[in-house]
C-alpha cells in the first residue's frame, strides 16, 4: 500500500515535499513510508533527499504534569486560603515527600507560599499554572522562548528528538509499478525458455561486504590444550560419540552396586525410548553378575540379587568412565598390550542448576593400563600431567570411589585465590572391575578425571557457568576472548 501510494502521488504531483506530512495525509505509518522510500530509491524509481527536524518532546515526568498540574501548582492548591493555612507535616503527608520537595522550592521562588517551621500559608490569592501551559504548548508543537527551553532542560522535563524524513521526486527508472528482477537462473527458466524475457538483478561488485569469521568457544580452546597435553604424553583418544549408555556399562561393569544412590532418578537421566539396550556381551555379563553377588579376587562382593533388567536400562551417560570400561574390555579380548587412553566429552547428571552446576558438562579422563602399576606411578603421572598445565604444587587426599581403590582427590594451590583448590579425582581401578573383563592378574590401571568447565572459568575469569555453557551464553564474549594458552612444555 505504501509503495502504491508513493508512486501514484508522484505520478500526479511530481514531488513529495515532506514524508511526514505525506504519511499523515494517506493514513500510513511514517516508518513504513520511509522504509519504502529507501527501497524505491535503491532501484532508482525515486530520488530521495533526507531531511531532519529537531523537536523538543516531553519526558514522562512532564507528561504527568500536563495531566495533574505542575508540582508547585499542586502544592499551592493543597494549601487552604486564609490565615490558618496548613501544618507543614500535614502538607507533606498530603502531597507526598517527592512532590513536596520539587514543588515547595518553586512555589517559594514564585512567591506563592510562605513556608515556616510548622505552618504553610498562601502569599498569593490566585495563581496560574504557567509550567503546565508551557508544556502543553511544546506538546502541541508551538514555539516557545529560548529562556523557557533552557529552564525546562534544567528541570529535565524535555528532551531533544531528531526527526528524520525525506523529500521525494521521480527517479530515472520511475514507473507506476516496480519491475520484479530475477536473482537466480533456475533449471525451470531454462527449460521453459523464460530466461530470454527475464530481467536479472545486477550484481553490485562495489558493495562493501563485511566478512566475520567464526570464533572458537573458550571451552574448545582449553579442550584443545588438554588434548595436546595428552597426545604429547603418548595417550590415544577414545571414541566418545555415544551419549546414551546402558546401565551395565555406565555402572555395573565399574563394580558400582545397583542400589547405589547415584543410580536413582535424582542423579541420572533414564531414557523412555529406547528404554533398554538390546545387546550385551553375555559371557562378560555373567562374570559381572557373579562378582556383584558373590565377589572374587579377594572381594566379598555386595551380597545381593543382581538384576539384569536394571543393567539393561538406558541412561544418558553420567561419566566417560563408561567409555573407559568398553575400551578396557576390548583390550582384554586379545593379547595384552599396554595402553594409554584419554577422552574429553559431555556427560549428563540430574543436577540442580546454579552458578557452578549444570545438567550437562564436559569430563576429562585419562587411563593408563600396564603391568605392575602402583599408586606411586599414578602420583608421578598426575604430577607430570598437571605440571604441563602450570600446576606444580599438588597435594593428594584419600577418598572413596566405588570402582577405584585406593582413590585420591587432587588439590592444587591457586595463587589467585590464595588457597588449595580441588582440581580432580583419581585412583586405581579395582580388581573386581578389571578381572571379569579378562585382563591378566598382573595388569593394573590408573585413572584420573576432572571437569573442563572449572579450569576454563578460572582461566577466563568467568564466575557463572551459565555464562560459559548453555543457551544464555553471550556470543560477544566468545568473539572478544583471546586465545588462551596454558603452561605447556614444548
Tags for this entry?
490 residues; alpha+beta; 7-stranded mixed sheet; 3-stranded antiparallel sheet; 19 helices; 15 strands
Distance between the termini: 68 Å
Overall 3D form:
flat
State the total count of DSSP E strands.
15
* Portion in beta strands: 15-25%
* Estimated structural class: alpha+beta
What is the makeup of the main sheet? Answer: 7 strands, mixed
Q: Helical content, roughly?
A: 25-40%
Q: What is the number of helical segments per DSSP (H or I, 4+ residues)?
A: 19
| Spatial order of the strands forming the largest sheet | 7-10-11-15-14-13-12
Description:
This protein is of the alpha+beta class. Helix content is 36%, strand content 22%. It is built from 19 helices and 15 strands. The chain has helices at residues 2-13, 19-26, 30-42, 60-68, 71-78, 88-95, 97-109, 130-139, 146-154, 187-192, 218-232, 247-250, 282-293, 308-312, 321-332, 375-387, 431-434, 453-460, 475-480; strands at residues 15-16, 46-58, 86-87, 113-115, 119-122, 158-170, 236-237, 244-246, 314-316, 339-348, 360-371, 394-401, 404-414, 419-429, 443-451. The chain has a 7-stranded mixed sheet with strand order 7-10-11-15-14-13-12, sandwiched between helices. The protein has a 3-stranded antiparallel sheet with strand order 1-6-2. The longest helix is centred in the middle third of the chain and has 15 residues, at 218-232. The mean pLDDT is 86.
